């Protein structure tokens, strides 16, 4: 990108004509745009309004201090000092250059004495920044080049570019952003896959499938009021999930789902008690749902109930329940394109070859 910087050059004029020209030439060699007062044209704005607008558009500020303080405004402040103060206010990087050895300043009159005092005070203000001393225009030009190059590296500024170059830059930046987004999407996908594999590996460490679990329950209404359960039935985790899974196709509370498991236990245990009915202990209910959640078959739905939470099948849970409930084929289906014809009753008879025909 062909980036150029605008650099405001501030100084008194009549005592630094050669020095200003050397600075302008040095900036042009650096492919910078020097902004100098002698190049400003007539405008409807006041001089100071125009100067501040140019300063606002500039990237760096060069101030050169010689043997004169310069013309002052109604408040008794020189224009060079006002430009310096405004550049400092808006945060422009300031490059200061002070002539050395210091030229002799006339103090033959009261006006000259006041000018000299203002010059000394302004020079001291400039020297609070990093400044360079110069002896002649050539020395000043060389030091300006060094200072500008250093400032561009240490304090990079926005600068100016051609409109066409800006469009190219935006196209490159857009392409880079798209590439970055694609990379981030790929990394996110890889992280999701890694997390999925980690979760799958963790699921395999939990009891499931044909592993067994002891279910503790109370027999009948009277026993349900007692403290200790008397019934224990051993089931596989597949049997447990097959019993309560259908209830969890829609959000369901754990006690509603566990009634289906209690019915299974009641069916398997024959009792003469007409009030018989299994009631699974609450600690086993909590353990069962924790186990099914750990194996990735169920998850909480997010709905809140007055007592308990709602559970629902996960996608792996739906697939596992389908495998447990669905009936599979007992025979292999015929190959594609092959007619599904019944087998013949016996071996196919050979057809007799036709004999010679006889005529009458």
Automatic annotation (TrEMBL):
Any coiled-coil regions, as ranges: 174-201
Keywords, ordered alphabetically: Coiled coil
Key word Coiled coil present: yes
Ranges where the record places region Disordered: 323-360
Position of the signal peptide: none
Compositional bias per record (Basic and acidic residues), positions renumbered to this chain: 323-332
Domain DUF4062: 6-87
Pfam families xrefs: DUF4062
Protein name, as recorded: DUF4062 domain-containing protein
Species of the source: Tsukamurella strandjordii
């Amino acid at each position: 990108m062909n980036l150029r910087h605008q650099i405001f050059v501030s100084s008194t004029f009549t005592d630094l004509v050669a020095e200003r020209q050397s600075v302008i030439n040095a900036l042009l060699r650096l492919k910078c745009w020097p902004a100098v007062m002698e190049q400003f044209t007539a405008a409807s704005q006041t001089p100071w309004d125009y100067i501040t607008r140019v300063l606002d558009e500039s990237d760096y500020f060069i101030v050169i201090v010689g043997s004169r303080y310069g013309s002052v405004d109604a408040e008794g402040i020189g224009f060079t000092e006002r430009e310096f103060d405004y550049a400092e206010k808006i945060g422009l990087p300031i490059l200061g250059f002070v002539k050395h050895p210091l030229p002799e300043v006339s103090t033959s009159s009261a006006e000259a004495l006041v000018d000299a005092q203002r010059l000394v005070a302004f020079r001291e203000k400039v020297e609070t920044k990093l400044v360079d001393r110069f002896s002649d225009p050539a020395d000043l030009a060389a030091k300006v080049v060094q200072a500008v190059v250093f400032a561009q590296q240490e304090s990079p500024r926005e600068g100016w570019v051609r409109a066409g170059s800006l469009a190219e830059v935006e196209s490159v930046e857009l392409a880079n952003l798209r590439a970055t987004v694609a990379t981030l999407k790929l990394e996110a996908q890889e992280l999701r896959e890694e997390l999925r594999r980690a979760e799958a590996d963790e699921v395999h460490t939990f009891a499931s499938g044909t592993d067994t679990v002891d279910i503790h329950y109370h027999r009948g209404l009277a026993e349900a009021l007692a403290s200790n359960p008397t019934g224990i039935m051993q089931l596989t985790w597949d049997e447990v999930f097959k019993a309560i899974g259908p209830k969890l196709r829609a959000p369901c509370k754990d006690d509603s789902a566990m009634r289906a498991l209690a019915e299974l236990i009641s069916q398997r245990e024959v009792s003469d008690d007409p009030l018989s009915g299994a009631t699974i202990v609450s600690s086993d209910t909590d353990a069962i749902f924790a186990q099914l959640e750990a194996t990735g078959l169920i998850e909480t739905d997010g709905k809140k109930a007055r007592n308990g939470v709602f559970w629902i099948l996960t996608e792996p849970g739906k697939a596992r329940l389908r495998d447990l409930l669905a009936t599979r084929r007992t025979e292999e289906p015929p190959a594609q394109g092959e007619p599904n014809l019944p087998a013949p009753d016996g071996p196919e008879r050979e057809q007799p070859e036709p004999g010679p025909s006889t005529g009458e």
